[in-house]
Design brief:
With 478 residues, this protein is an alpha/beta fold. The chain has 3 domains: 22-135, Fumarate Reductase Iron-sulfur Protein, Chain B, domain 2 (Orthogonal Bundle), CATH 1.10.1060; 150-243 and 404-477, FAD/NAD(P)-binding domain (3-Layer(bba) Sandwich), CATH 3.50.50; 249-401, FAD/NAD(P)-binding domain (3-Layer(bba) Sandwich), CATH 3.50.50. The protein has 19 helices and 16 strands. The protein has helices spanning 22-25, 38-45, 55-58, 66-74, 78-88, 92-98, 110-113, 121-135, 158-169, 186-189, 198-210, 227-233, 262-275, 280-283, 301-312, 333-342, 407-410, 443-446, 451-477; strands at residues 150-154, 173-177, 214-216, 236-239, 245-246, 259-261, 293-297, 317-322, 345-348, 350-356, 362-373, 379-383, 389-392, 395-398, 402-403, 438-440. It is globular, with a radius of gyration of 23 Å. The model has no long low-confidence stretch (mean pLDDT 94).
Length: 478
């Protein structure tokens, strides 16, 4: 009788892959977690309770069939595990690295709720697909038959790349237009290498190119090429630009030099540290934290990326100001713990009031307390009068979130409808906009969100585009 590989959560404790020590990892931009060994991946997968109602799956935006690929991994059927994993996820090795599993699949694991410690879903997901790449199981999209329809995708981030993958596998001719010199969007230039090493992203770009996806880089729509020109050349257009406009700081002195945008800072670091590009602003020190007292303002994942990057650049000190407490911060608690281990100091219930000096020399900070809940149900921060103090700073990084650019104006397309938040107005799931043949996916529809949601949107939209092409073909044949 075969030995039961599952339901081992009582005998086997939760275990993560080894994490490099803080003193070792805070000197480079390599990923901090090691890979699971084969036996350890089997062991941890075998802790899954194979729930009748898998909450891990239902709380995953992609509804990944997590219990099945855990069972296959525990049984040593790794190629089948990969096939199940990639059936619903275009980039499982990326999601395994950067998804906030503590808020999604792992945070809703049934054995976690019963006190046994969640299954290490993300680490196993990463292990499965990394092994698939090593074994040559990951293949470029190879359609059985080519189609005549052509789709333009504006934006080479996760939503656009996911849509391209689905469309290309169906034989559609796909061209991706992007303003940057490398595809990947925030996965390439926004997320630091210690969370997502750049060869991981680059090989996915190369895989799509090998499969027939055409990339037009350094293309700033509305400047180097008009939206109407792109639309005229293709049967459908997918807007997947993301949201790149940083929210601004208010208060006296907020325009001083030395106060920089998080995305500018992270892009410079990724270019210099991960790609070896020459970045004048990094070399001059404008976007480099070396030997500086750094203050990062914000409590989301971008703020965590900034503080941990500053540590690696050799900052004298790194402090993070957040107006709510630790429990109410939007960023991953796992990332906060990693940052604290690496030497970041968090100043909870604090907010900037003003800035002194130009270049900046200090942040005037006011202390906060949590008051009544706001419209979202979260307690609103209130200023404690007379609590001001000064925090010395040579570099202040604004990580307050992102807003959409004004695409109708920038692209000269006033008929492109947007919401009151400036996001493109599109149908739920299908991504259809009011413009015939124009779709929109990811953050430009949702607002700043997670990579996994962009992947979900891109895949869903691609399926609806194929349906719409089929419907048009049926009408034309009548």
């Amino acid at each position: 009788m075969a030995k039961q590989p599952m339901l081992k959560f009582v005998q086997v404790e939760r275990d993560m892959p080894l994490k490099r020590t803080a003193d070792e990892r805070n000197k480079d931009f390599h990923e901090i977690y090691a890979e699971f060994a084969d036996e350890k991946a089997k062991e941890q997968s075998g802790r899954c309770s194979q729930c009748g109602v898998p909450y891990c799956q239902s709380h995953c935006p992609l509804h990944n069939n997590i219990p099945d690929w855990l069972r296959l991994t525990a049984s040593g059927r790794l190629k089948e595990a990969y096939e199940v994993s990639q059936a619903t996820n275009t980039f499982p090795e990326i999601c395994g690295r950067i998804c906030p599993q503590d808020r999604l699949c792992e945070g809703n694991c049934v054995i976690e709720q019963s006190g046994h410690g969640t299954v290490t879903i993300g680490a196993v997901e990463k292990y499965i697909t990394d092994t698939a790449w090593e074994e040559g199981w990951v293949e470029p999209p190879a359609p059985v038959q080519e189609r005549r329809e052509s789709v333009a995708i504006i934006g080479a981030g996760p939503g656009g790349l996911a849509a391209a993958d689905v469309l290309r596998r169906a034989g559609v001719q796909v061209t991706i237009y992007d303003r940057y010199d490398r595809a990947g969007g925030l996965m390439t230039y926004g997320i630091p290498g210690f969370k997502l090493e750049k060869p991981i992203v680059m090989r996915r770009n190369e895989q799509l190119a090998q499969g027939g996806v055409r990339f037009v880089m350094d293309c700033d729509v509305g400047v180097t090429m008009s939206f109407d020109d792109i639309r005229d050349q293709h049967d459908a257009v997918v807007i997947a630009t993301g949201v790149y406009k940083s929210r601004s700081l208010q208060g006296p002195g907020s325009g001083a030099s030395g106060i920089v945008r998080a995305l500018d800072y992270l892009t410079a670091s990724n270019r210099a540290s991960n790609f070896g590009d020459t970045v004048p602003e990094w070399e001059s020190g404008e976007l480099n934290a070396k030997d500086k007292r750094v203050v990062v303002i914000g409590g989301g994942d971008t703020a965590m990326d900034c503080v941990r990057t500053a540590i690696r650049q050799g900052a004298t000190s790194v402090k993070c100001l957040y107006r709510r407490d630790r429990t109410n911060m939007p960023g991953s608690q796992r990332e906060v713990k990693n940052a604290e281990e690496e030497g970041v100091q968090f100043e909870w219930l604090t907010a900037p009031k003003a800035f002194k000096g130009d270049p900046v020399e200090a942040v005037v900070v006011e202390k906060m307390r949590l008051g009544l809940p706001d419209a979202t149900g979260r307690q609103s921060p209130e200023v404690i009068e007379g609590s001001d103090y000064e925090e010395p700073a040579d570099l202040v990084i604004k990580a307050l979130g992102f807003e959409p650019e004004e695409l109708p104006t920038l692209w000269g397309v006033p008929e492109l409808e947007v919401t009151r938040w400036g996001t493109v107005k599109a149908e739920f799931t299908s991504g259809r906009t009011a413009l015939p043949g124009v779709y929109a996916v990811g953050d430009i529809v949702r607002g700043a969100s997670l990579v996994v949601w962009a992947i979900r949107d891109g895949r869903d939209c691609a399926e609806h585009i194929l349906q719409d092409f089929g419907a048009k073909a049926a009408i034309a044949a009548e």
